[in-house]
Amino acid sequence: MYSHCEKGGWILGNTIDGCQAEYVRIPFADNSLYPIPEGADEEALVMLSDILPTGFECGVLNGQVKPGDTIAIIGAGPIGLAVLLTSQFYSPSVIIVIDQDDNRLAVAKTFGATHIINSIVENAFDKVMKITGDKGVDAAIEAVGIASTFELCETIVAAGGHIANIGVHGKSVTLHMESLWSRNITITTRLVDTVTTPMLFKTVQSKKLDPKKLITHHFRLDQIVEAYETFGNAAQEKALKVILSN
Amino acid sequence: MYSHCEKGGWILGNTIDGCQAEYVRIPFADNSLYPIPEGADEEALVMLSDILPTGFECGVLNGQVKPGDTIAIIGAGPIGLAVLLTSQFYSPSVIIVIDQDDNRLAVAKTFGATHIINSIVENAFDKVMKITGDKGVDAAIEAVGIASTFELCETIVAAGGHIANIGVHGKSVTLHMESLWSRNITITTRLVDTVTTPMLFKTVQSKKLDPKKLITHHFRLDQIVEAYETFGNAAQEKALKVILSN
Amino acid sequence: MYSHCEKGGWILGNTIDGCQAEYVRIPFADNSLYPIPEGADEEALVMLSDILPTGFECGVLNGQVKPGDTIAIIGAGPIGLAVLLTSQFYSPSVIIVIDQDDNRLAVAKTFGATHIINSIVENAFDKVMKITGDKGVDAAIEAVGIASTFELCETIVAAGGHIANIGVHGKSVTLHMESLWSRNITITTRLVDTVTTPMLFKTVQSKKLDPKKLITHHFRLDQIVEAYETFGNAAQEKALKVILSN
Amino acid sequence: MYSHCEKGGWILGNTIDGCQAEYVRIPFADNSLYPIPEGADEEALVMLSDILPTGFECGVLNGQVKPGDTIAIIGAGPIGLAVLLTSQFYSPSVIIVIDQDDNRLAVAKTFGATHIINSIVENAFDKVMKITGDKGVDAAIEAVGIASTFELCETIVAAGGHIANIGVHGKSVTLHMESLWSRNITITTRLVDTVTTPMLFKTVQSKKLDPKKLITHHFRLDQIVEAYETFGNAAQEKALKVILSN
Questions:
Q1: Is residue C20 part of a domain?
Q2: CA dist., res. B220 & res. B242, Å (int)
Q3: Is B66 near chain A, with CB under 8 Å?
Q4: Do residues B133 and B26 both lie within one domain?
Q5: Are residues D70 and D23 both part of a single domain?
Q6: Distance between CA atoms of D116 and D110, rounded to whole angstroms?
Q7: Same domain for D20 and D67?
């Protein structure tokens, strides 16, 4: 469990400064750096540094997605979309993506969502129950980080199902144990360990996964302020991930 | 997942009348009755009908107890004590039992608890942290069913650990996602499936498990009112499980 | 483990007569029959009765195929091709199919094999080692049932890898423990349990799996002799699976 | 899988010289050395360096020993006895130890074997079948390394069971696939990874495991020749493990 290594874990940008510098020292580099093979697409690999292992480990693996499963992804930001892409490694039957942004939902549809729900326009609970024949989903994957989306997961998870939390929460949530105690459900939380980087790398090399789909904008280093502004207005700019290069 | 069989599951005493009758029809009997071999101790086997599989499946298996683990069992009633007995199948290093009843804690000590905490007298959180060198426990097993004991589990579970709920809750609880989101924990709920009855039966036959330890009182059928009164005043009567026979 | 049920298991066509009759009694029908929903494609479902669960359970699940894995399937008959189709539920990077029949290898290529090897024309061991950078495969799946193909699996399996046997063997094989003892490998055998029928059914309904690809010929019941002759000369007739209907 | 690390793995005494020297350089020490806490019993910990993780990982974990299981350990040398000690972490019902040395079998009995078989005096297959009611054992653990003991495992393993090989084999063995193909068995091989050293350490510290039981002789460094002779005549000298100290 690298994420909770007693002297390591999440260090850069958390317990020490981050990587926006000319030179960066990587603590415990022996255990966390991977060689890039010649000819590999470096932009694709940028997506492997955080967003894809986060979506895959915290969402897909913890949600124990299996062939034939019905799953719901709540939140269609970059992390939610990373879940969407990597969940398809396990061939679920039904992938429902729920968000409030029509552009992101449209992107989700092109990335493989079988159903999309704009939760402003539609009642998400009702629609999920309709899609799943009133059973709920085998895995409800939370990629937002607020109480209302977590509590939606509590209502749409099927008996025996999984709630896999990815979102960074600032407040507590209400856990409805009065109904959940008997439902055989599993709730997981996780700070990404990046133990799956080698596996993800193989799926990129073999074209099973195309992480470049997540890149919507490119900027040069001298446009960095503009880049941050674009990312800051992600919804308006229809931005997912932004690449900075020389 | 027998417990959520669409037409079966928890039927007796729930969706139809229970077993206090001269004759009882068992729905789906083919899948849920086991032959008692000649010479088996029938009183021991009464404990296998509910309490031991409940403690074992919902507490020990869901808590993923492993050799060397540190575990805490919150609640030393019959179910908590069933967890205590069956957790020892997996050789944890430290077994902390927390309750408010000194008699039950004394029983827990004789059943294999390495530490006991009376949470009226002592601060349970502080003491668990002291015992575990401030790491918390690998598995916190809730066998009470109220908000305060569940929330105690949230504070004493180690990073990467498990909260296995057994208690029947009547109200919601507060889930502190603001601290738990990054702690790689797993929370489980479960209505017993009794899939482990054959395994438990083998452990009884081979003397690895002595369920009769849980029986404190015997009554004849014509003493049934007294039996219920005794069980109703369990703390005062120092009652765990009560056997009724001809 | 239905396949080794003490009174059940593989009965039809094994311990009692098979199904070629006007009426058939199915022992333990409660546990082994599934309702066909209205509108389902019955020909596709015929493939779910044996060939697909066999390939999936004995080959793919026992071989523990994971995203990014390299796998080899030895034998491109209907069972080997069922492995090929269902292994893709788990997104392996490299799928090598080895056979001696160019037609079946060509079919394998259209079904998703990334590499094909005709072991008459080429040295299968050399070519697998070349494809895998001298590491061997994560899973070698034997779908023939003779000593030479099993022993090929022993040579091409990577350290830590799996040999999943499906083939029905008539003779013993030589197990090279003098090299394998230290290689951390797992060898499995299995008579299909059909526990995955519900999962496979969902993948068919959601179009993740198209079992009809395996059907090459159709006959009416009054052409049954011709049908058997076609299946008896499978290689020559380029036959995979044959459907008989009214 | 440390044992197959491309640049590491089994180095000392294999690809470079071993440890009989005044100073020793440990390659990749960061990943393979553990601090000894003050007050720990150093002689007990010597047993954790190889013999206990070997028995535990290759025998008990690979054999997937579960509560209530019936297991057979073939070979009562130090490794077989390490399996015997660590298998009890998982509370099997029946532990049969098979050897040809009465002294070692007597030791096995005191270490927790429920049944012992001297395979010179008795027919091991017949006796195992009698003990297990003709079902065979859930796990057959091979701790010798010759064809006859491996092939005994093939005959005594139950349907759905495990053969966990530990023995270092110099020759191939005959694998009876003509009977095993349909028996749903799993055969594993493994070079110890020592990933369980921290877990084993916790079981020693908490007195769940007493590895000193395996130490039969002590010598001073200046008696090293005598020590080797004793270990060389282990059967005659009734030697298990020998400690050398200043």
A1: yes
A2: 11
A3: no
A4: no
A5: no
A6: 11
A7: no
Please name every residue paired with A49 in a beta bridge, in sequence order, or none if there are none.
none
Cβ burial of D235 (10 Å; 0-12, 13-18, 19+) is exposed
Does the CB of D170 have a partner CB in chain C at under 8 Å?
A: yes
Does the structure's ipTM exceed the value 0.90?
yes
Quote the CA–CA distance of B90 and B74 in Å, as a whole number: 19
DSSP SS3 for C183: coil
What value does the CA radius of gyration of chain C take, rounded to a whole number of Å? 18
pTM of the model: 0.96
Mind giving me the DSSP string for C157-176? EEEEEEEEE-S--SS-EEE-
Q: Supply the Cα-derived Rg of chain B in whole angstroms.
A: 18
The SS3 assignment for C219 reads strand
Window from B167-181, C170-184, D229-243 with minimum mean pLDDT: D229-243
pLDDT band at A8 (very low <50, low <70, confident <90, very high): confident
User: Are D1 and D92 contained in the same domain?
Assistant: no
Amino acid at B34: Y
CB B169 within 8 A of CB B144: no
- Amino acid identity of D96? I
Which residue of chain C has the CA closest to A91?
A: C89
Both C116 and C148 in one domain: the answer is yes
User: Scanning every residue of chain B, which has its alpha carbon at the shortest distance from the alpha carbon of D209?
Assistant: B91
**Helices and strands in chain C: count of H runs, count of E runs:** 10, 9
- Is C127 inside a domain boundary? yes
For the record, the structure tokens of B99 come out as: 């309750």
Contacts with A167 (C-beta within 8 Å, 6 or more apart), sequence order = A75, A142, A143, A144, A145, A146, A149, A150, B181
d(CA B23, CA A77): 60
| Per-position DSSP letters for B94-145, written without gaps between them | EEEEEES-HHHHHHHHHTT-SEEEETTTS-HHHHHHHHTTTS-EEEEEE-S-
Residues A60, A112 share a domain: yes
Nearest residue on chain C to D1, judged by CA atoms? C160
Question: Which of A89, A95, A210 is the best mutation test for C, with the most CBs of C within 10 A?
Answer: A89
In this structure, the answer to whether residues C165 and C111 fall within a common structural domain is yes
Residue D16 domain boundaries: 1-33
List, in sequence order, every residue forming a beta bridge with B157; answer none if it has no partner.
B137
B202 touches chain A (CB under 8 A): no
Report if residue D43 sits inside a domain. no
pLDDT for the residue D19: 85
For helices D147-156 and D124-131, what crossing angle results, to 10°?
30
B77 secondary structure, DSSP code: S
| pLDDT tens-digit series, residues C65-102 | 999 999 999 999 999 999 999 999 999 999 999 999 99
Q: What is the DSSP string of D141-186?
A: EE-S-SHHHHHHHHHHEEEEEEEEE-S--SS-EEE-HHHHTTS--E
Chain B positions in Cβ-Cβ contact with residue D202 (cut-off 8 Å): 67-69, 93
B192/chain A closest Cα distance in angstroms: 8
Q: How far apart are CA A42 and CA A40, in angstroms?
A: 6
Looking up residue C103, the CATH number of its domain turns out to be 3.40.50.720
Query: Smallest Cβ distance to A3: which of B177, B178, B184?
Result: B184
Domain finish residue from A188, A203, A238: A188
Residues A55 and A1 in one domain: no
Domain annotation covers residue B220 = no
Neighbouring residues of A141: CB distance < 8 A, sequence distance ≥ 6: A59, A60, A63, A71, A72, A73, A74, A80, A83, A87, A153, A163, A164, A166
Domain end (from A188, A208, A223)? A188
CA atoms within 13 A on the CB side of C216: 17
Total of domains in chain A = 2
CA distance B113 to C214: 59
pLDDT at residue C125 tops 90: yes
φ, ψ for residue C99 (rounded to 5)?
-155, 180
